[in-house]
Design the sequence.
């Protein structure tokens, strides 16, 4: 199944024409594990250094978990390798239909000791840049990770 590429308005960078991977995300918790596995194969096919791939998998997991837990479907993962400031980067984007409506005042409060809210800090620590692009009916959370020189993304597009 081919999904059209989504554009974001936050940068003018264009991905290398052969290094883009787009995957629709089912809105179920099991999606995270499946997507991690597929993304690892794509990043391996692109010959990214293991450390970069490991960081990317963590960022992907955080962005997807956020979309599934807090946003409305549909959601889509897009991986690309644009040139940013004369250097190649791995760009990770998760687009969704925006945040879920807030819970009603009658809803029970969240569990006090749940572990939430660390994703943005993890993404910030692992990426060169990250942010959110808001569009009319869509929101894209993105991060860019540095790719060591010599990894130009010249491999053909992956299709796991």
Sequence:
């Amino acid at each position: 199944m081919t999904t059209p590429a989504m554009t974001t308005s936050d940068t003018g960078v264009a991905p290398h024409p052969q290094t883009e991977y787009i995957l629709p995300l089912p809105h179920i918790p099991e999606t995270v594990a499946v997507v991690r596995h597929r993304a690892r194969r794509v990043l391996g096919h692109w010959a990214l250094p293991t450390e970069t791939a490991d960081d990317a998998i963590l960022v992907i997991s955080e962005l997807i978990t956020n979309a599934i837990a807090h946003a409305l479907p549909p959601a889509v993962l897009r991986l690309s390798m644009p040139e940013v400031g004369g250097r190649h980067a791995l760009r990770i984007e998760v687009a969704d239909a925006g945040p879920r409506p807030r819970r009603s005042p009658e809803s029970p409060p969240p569990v006090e000791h749940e572990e939430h809210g660390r994703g943005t800090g993890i993404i910030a620590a692992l990426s060169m840049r990250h942010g959110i692009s808001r569009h009319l009916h869509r929101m894209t959370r993105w991060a860019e990770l540095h790719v060591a020189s010599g990894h130009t993304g010249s491999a053909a597009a992956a299709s796991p």
About this structure: The longest strand covers residues 15-25. Helices lie at 31-45, 50-70, 119-126. The radius of gyration is 16 Å.
